[in-house]
Amino acid sequence: MDGQSRLGAFLQSRRSRLRPDDLGLKTYGERRRVPGLRREELALLAGVSASYYTRLEQGQSHNASPEVLDALARALGLDESERRHLHDLAASAARRHHGLRRPPDEDVSDATRHLLDALADVPAVVLGRRTDVLAWNALGHALFAAHLPTDGPEDAASRPNMAALVFLDPDTRALYADWETKARSVVANLREVVGRHPDDARLASLIGELTMKSAEFGSLWADHQVRACDATPHAMHHPLIGAVTVTQQALRTADDQTVVVAHTVPGSPSRTALALLADRGGAAQGAGRGGAGVLGPAKPKP
């Protein structure tokens, strides 16, 4: 799907979720063939002509101004993440594309590694823009992926991918008490990244793989939900420490990577559980790199 098609699909998906009654538009009881607003109704709300909006949604107009895009965002009731995504898609549609490009392998800067070291007392994972795991500290590995080798992120050709783990790895899926919420968050973040990097061949390959292997991913991807990573609480069922609730907070680095930190409420049972995991995980880490970890022998990457 090219930039023009992505823009049209996103506009159509956001238009379909609005109801005329919610916006005070009179329908006079007529039957509507499709859910949501009609194109001419949205155009009226945004202050543009119906013919112009139709061309934009059908990929026949490539020059939407920022003012028009903001007017459409207001009419559609988009939040800030969705508004930025709309602008990204429009910019992509306006550019001349030369096909997908295979970007170089991502690496972790010294500054990010120093940050990871400073976060030794909390679980932390460094993700690339395609959610490849570029690095993790001992506690991050113990919380999120103790069934994988500790040195997994070091080989660029076989790094774990967090999105793939969430959808395709049963151990990761079992970690989340509300897996559906976690899954929606992963997909919404990938949508945001695709808008910013539409020519990334590796990202397109990841989306294709997940769509083919997971019907749940395909269904969520078709919803066009978009949201950048922020701070989200997740209840987890860890096989070693049991129930724990952490807030997974995303810190964006200057090189378009994300440090995901899992923190807990001071004085809570979850804080105590993470301290226990740190004690046990540290002892297991001392057994050697790529060894059994805290849960037993490592399993192969899915």
Keywords:
302 residues, 434 Repressor (Amino-terminal Domain), alpha+beta, 2 domains, five-stranded antiparallel sheet
What does this molecule look like?
The protein is of the alpha+beta class and 302 residues long. It has two domains: 3-94, 434 Repressor (Amino-terminal Domain); 110-285, 2-Layer Sandwich (Beta-Lactamase), CATH 3.30.450. The chain contains 13 helices and five strands. The chain has helices at 3-16, 39-46, 50-57, 66-76, 80-94, 110-118, 138-144, 162-168, 170-175, 179-196, 201-213, 215-221, 269-285, and strands spanning 124-127, 133-136, 231-238, 242-252, 258-263. A five-stranded antiparallel sheet has the order 2-1-5-4-3, sandwiched between helices. A hairpin with a 5-residue loop joins strand 1 and strand 2 (133-136). Helix 11 packs across helix 12 (215-221). The longest helix has 18 residues, at 179-196. The protein is elongated. The model is unreliable at 282-302 (pLDDT under 50).
User: Any low-confidence stretches, pLDDT <50, length ≥5?
Assistant: 282-302
Overall 3D shape: elongated
Total beta strand runs: 5
Distance separating the two termini: 27 Å
The largest sheet, given as strand count, sense and whether it forms a barrel, is: 5 strands, antiparallel
What is the topology, as strand order, of the major beta sheet? 2-1-5-4-3
Structural class: alpha+beta
